[in-house]
Design a protein that fits this description.
By secondary structure, this protein is α/β, with parallel strands linked by helices. It contains six helices and six strands. The protein has a six-stranded mixed sheet, with helices on both faces. Helix 1 links the parallel strand 1 and strand 2. Helix 1 crosses helix 6 and helix 4 crosses helix 6.
Length: 214
Protein backbone atom coordinates (compact mmCIF):
# COMPACT_ATOMS: atom_id res chain seq x y z
CA UNK A 1 0.00 0.00 0.00
CA UNK A 2 1.38 3.39 -1.03
CA UNK A 3 0.63 5.25 2.19
CA UNK A 4 -0.83 4.68 5.68
CA UNK A 5 -3.56 2.19 6.48
CA UNK A 6 -6.16 3.86 8.71
CA UNK A 7 -8.81 2.07 10.75
CA UNK A 8 -12.08 3.98 11.28
CA UNK A 9 -13.99 2.24 14.06
CA UNK A 10 -17.60 3.09 14.91
CA UNK A 11 -20.51 1.60 16.77
CA UNK A 12 -18.95 0.30 19.98
CA UNK A 13 -22.07 1.72 21.64
CA UNK A 14 -25.34 1.10 19.84
CA UNK A 15 -26.96 4.45 20.64
CA UNK A 16 -24.06 6.39 19.10
CA UNK A 17 -24.09 5.08 15.55
CA UNK A 18 -26.37 7.40 13.56
CA UNK A 19 -23.93 10.14 12.54
CA UNK A 20 -20.98 7.80 12.05
CA UNK A 21 -22.83 5.47 9.68
CA UNK A 22 -23.96 8.44 7.59
CA UNK A 23 -20.52 10.07 7.68
CA UNK A 24 -18.62 6.93 6.68
CA UNK A 25 -21.04 6.28 3.80
CA UNK A 26 -20.53 9.82 2.58
CA UNK A 27 -16.76 9.55 2.98
CA UNK A 28 -16.78 6.43 0.80
CA UNK A 29 -18.75 8.25 -1.92
CA UNK A 30 -16.64 11.42 -1.84
CA UNK A 31 -13.12 10.00 -1.67
CA UNK A 32 -11.61 9.39 -5.11
CA UNK A 33 -9.95 6.02 -4.55
CA UNK A 34 -7.73 6.59 -7.56
CA UNK A 35 -6.15 9.52 -5.74
CA UNK A 36 -6.08 7.98 -2.28
CA UNK A 37 -2.59 7.27 -0.97
CA UNK A 38 -2.85 4.38 1.44
CA UNK A 39 -6.01 2.57 2.52
CA UNK A 40 -9.02 3.12 4.75
CA UNK A 41 -10.65 0.23 6.61
CA UNK A 42 -13.97 1.26 8.15
CA UNK A 43 -16.30 -0.72 10.41
CA UNK A 44 -19.46 1.39 10.94
CA UNK A 45 -21.40 -1.02 13.21
CA UNK A 46 -18.85 -2.90 15.29
CA UNK A 47 -21.36 -3.81 18.03
CA UNK A 48 -24.20 -4.68 15.67
CA UNK A 49 -26.60 -6.17 18.20
CA UNK A 50 -26.32 -3.08 20.41
CA UNK A 51 -27.04 -0.95 17.34
CA UNK A 52 -30.21 -2.92 16.61
CA UNK A 53 -31.57 -1.97 20.04
CA UNK A 54 -30.06 1.56 20.03
CA UNK A 55 -28.51 0.80 23.44
CA UNK A 56 -24.99 1.07 24.85
CA UNK A 57 -24.69 -2.73 25.12
CA UNK A 58 -26.83 -5.58 23.72
CA UNK A 59 -29.59 -5.93 26.34
CA UNK A 60 -30.46 -9.54 25.54
CA UNK A 61 -27.06 -11.07 26.33
CA UNK A 62 -24.67 -8.53 27.87
CA UNK A 63 -25.64 -9.30 31.46
CA UNK A 64 -25.00 -13.00 30.82
CA UNK A 65 -21.42 -12.58 29.65
CA UNK A 66 -20.03 -12.81 33.15
CA UNK A 67 -17.13 -10.40 32.65
CA UNK A 68 -16.41 -6.85 33.73
CA UNK A 69 -17.92 -4.32 31.27
CA UNK A 70 -20.11 -7.06 29.83
CA UNK A 71 -21.33 -6.24 26.34
CA UNK A 72 -19.37 -2.97 26.22
CA UNK A 73 -17.10 -3.15 23.19
CA UNK A 74 -15.44 0.09 24.24
CA UNK A 75 -13.97 -1.52 27.37
CA UNK A 76 -12.89 -5.00 26.26
CA UNK A 77 -9.84 -4.47 24.04
CA UNK A 78 -7.82 -6.17 22.70
CA UNK A 79 -10.32 -8.94 23.30
CA UNK A 80 -10.11 -12.65 24.01
CA UNK A 81 -10.57 -15.41 21.44
CA UNK A 82 -11.97 -17.72 24.15
CA UNK A 83 -13.96 -15.08 26.04
CA UNK A 84 -17.47 -13.67 25.91
CA UNK A 85 -19.23 -12.75 22.68
CA UNK A 86 -18.11 -9.12 22.97
CA UNK A 87 -14.55 -10.10 23.85
CA UNK A 88 -14.48 -12.31 20.76
CA UNK A 89 -15.71 -9.44 18.59
CA UNK A 90 -12.92 -7.23 19.92
CA UNK A 91 -10.35 -9.99 19.38
CA UNK A 92 -11.46 -10.56 15.78
CA UNK A 93 -11.33 -6.84 14.97
CA UNK A 94 -7.96 -6.52 16.71
CA UNK A 95 -6.27 -9.46 14.99
CA UNK A 96 -7.85 -9.21 11.55
CA UNK A 97 -8.06 -5.42 11.10
CA UNK A 98 -6.25 -3.29 13.67
CA UNK A 99 -3.13 -5.43 13.38
CA UNK A 100 -2.65 -4.40 9.74
CA UNK A 101 -3.37 -0.70 10.33
CA UNK A 102 -0.97 2.12 11.13
CA UNK A 103 -3.40 4.26 13.15
CA UNK A 104 -7.01 4.36 14.30
CA UNK A 105 -9.89 6.75 14.94
CA UNK A 106 -12.62 5.56 17.32
CA UNK A 107 -15.96 7.29 16.61
CA UNK A 108 -18.40 7.93 19.47
CA UNK A 109 -21.00 10.55 20.35
CA UNK A 110 -22.47 12.23 23.41
CA UNK A 111 -26.02 13.23 24.24
CA UNK A 112 -27.31 16.73 24.73
CA UNK A 113 -26.45 19.11 26.22
CA UNK A 114 -22.86 18.58 25.19
CA UNK A 115 -20.07 19.61 22.85
CA UNK A 116 -17.98 17.68 20.40
CA UNK A 117 -14.45 16.85 21.53
CA UNK A 118 -11.50 14.56 20.94
CA UNK A 119 -10.94 12.22 23.90
CA UNK A 120 -7.28 11.35 24.33
CA UNK A 121 -6.46 8.27 26.40
CA UNK A 122 -2.81 8.74 27.32
CA UNK A 123 -1.95 5.12 26.66
CA UNK A 124 -3.08 1.67 27.73
CA UNK A 125 -1.11 -0.50 30.14
CA UNK A 126 1.70 2.03 29.88
CA UNK A 127 1.68 5.82 29.89
CA UNK A 128 2.39 6.87 26.30
CA UNK A 129 3.20 10.49 27.15
CA UNK A 130 6.22 11.62 25.13
CA UNK A 131 6.27 8.60 22.80
CA UNK A 132 6.14 9.00 19.01
CA UNK A 133 2.73 7.30 18.94
CA UNK A 134 1.33 9.78 21.48
CA UNK A 135 2.71 12.77 19.61
CA UNK A 136 1.23 11.53 16.34
CA UNK A 137 -2.10 10.92 18.09
CA UNK A 138 -2.13 14.54 19.22
CA UNK A 139 -1.32 15.70 15.69
CA UNK A 140 -4.20 13.65 14.24
CA UNK A 141 -6.63 14.99 16.83
CA UNK A 142 -5.52 18.58 16.20
CA UNK A 143 -6.07 18.03 12.48
CA UNK A 144 -9.60 16.72 13.12
CA UNK A 145 -10.32 20.08 14.71
CA UNK A 146 -12.21 19.48 17.97
CA UNK A 147 -11.30 20.55 21.50
CA UNK A 148 -9.00 17.91 23.01
CA UNK A 149 -9.61 16.35 26.42
CA UNK A 150 -6.73 14.26 27.82
CA UNK A 151 -7.31 11.49 30.34
CA UNK A 152 -5.33 8.75 32.08
CA UNK A 153 -4.14 5.60 30.31
CA UNK A 154 -6.79 2.89 29.93
CA UNK A 155 -5.71 -0.55 28.66
CA UNK A 156 -9.26 -1.69 27.89
CA UNK A 157 -10.04 0.89 25.20
CA UNK A 158 -9.23 0.66 21.51
CA UNK A 159 -7.09 3.80 21.68
CA UNK A 160 -5.23 2.55 24.76
CA UNK A 161 -4.52 -0.85 23.21
CA UNK A 162 -3.36 0.86 20.00
CA UNK A 163 -0.94 3.11 21.87
CA UNK A 164 0.47 0.07 23.70
CA UNK A 165 1.12 -1.40 20.24
CA UNK A 166 2.79 1.81 19.05
CA UNK A 167 -0.14 2.85 16.86
CA UNK A 168 -1.46 6.45 17.04
CA UNK A 169 -5.15 6.56 17.97
CA UNK A 170 -7.77 8.87 19.42
CA UNK A 171 -11.51 9.03 20.08
CA UNK A 172 -14.00 11.41 18.53
CA UNK A 173 -17.09 12.40 20.54
CA UNK A 174 -19.59 14.21 18.31
CA UNK A 175 -22.94 15.50 19.61
CA UNK A 176 -26.61 14.45 19.22
CA UNK A 177 -26.04 10.76 19.81
CA UNK A 178 -29.51 9.51 18.93
CA UNK A 179 -30.25 11.54 15.80
CA UNK A 180 -28.84 11.93 12.31
CA UNK A 181 -28.14 15.66 12.29
CA UNK A 182 -26.76 17.09 9.04
CA UNK A 183 -24.52 19.60 10.81
CA UNK A 184 -22.97 16.84 12.92
CA UNK A 185 -22.50 14.53 9.93
CA UNK A 186 -20.92 17.31 7.85
CA UNK A 187 -18.66 18.32 10.73
CA UNK A 188 -17.48 14.75 11.28
CA UNK A 189 -16.85 14.39 7.56
CA UNK A 190 -14.78 17.58 7.50
CA UNK A 191 -12.82 16.41 10.52
CA UNK A 192 -12.13 13.00 9.02
CA UNK A 193 -11.01 14.51 5.74
CA UNK A 194 -8.73 16.79 7.76
CA UNK A 195 -7.09 13.73 9.30
CA UNK A 196 -6.63 12.06 5.91
CA UNK A 197 -5.10 15.26 4.49
CA UNK A 198 -2.81 15.53 7.52
CA UNK A 199 -1.64 11.95 6.97
CA UNK A 200 -0.86 12.70 3.31
CA UNK A 201 -3.56 10.37 2.06
CA UNK A 202 -5.63 13.06 0.34
CA UNK A 203 -4.72 16.31 -1.36
CA UNK A 204 -6.10 19.53 0.07
CA UNK A 205 -5.81 21.67 3.17
CA UNK A 206 -6.99 21.14 6.73
CA UNK A 207 -10.18 23.16 7.22
CA UNK A 208 -11.68 24.49 10.49
CA UNK A 209 -14.80 22.98 12.05
CA UNK A 210 -16.15 26.26 13.44
CA UNK A 211 -18.96 26.48 10.90
CA UNK A 212 -20.21 23.02 11.96
CA UNK A 213 -20.08 23.58 15.71
CA UNK A 214 -22.42 26.57 16.10
Amino acid sequence: VDGPVVYLHAGSHGQETNYSVAMLARLRREVDLRRLRGAIIAVPLANLLAHQFATRVPPHYAAREGVAFAGDLHKLWPGDAQGSITQRIAHLLWTEIVGQCDCAVDLHSVGEPGIGFAFMYRGGKRDALGTPAWERSLEMARAFGLTMVTTAPNPLTLAGACLDAGKPAFMVEMTKARTTDETVVAGALRGMRNVLVHLGMLDGTVGPLRAFLV
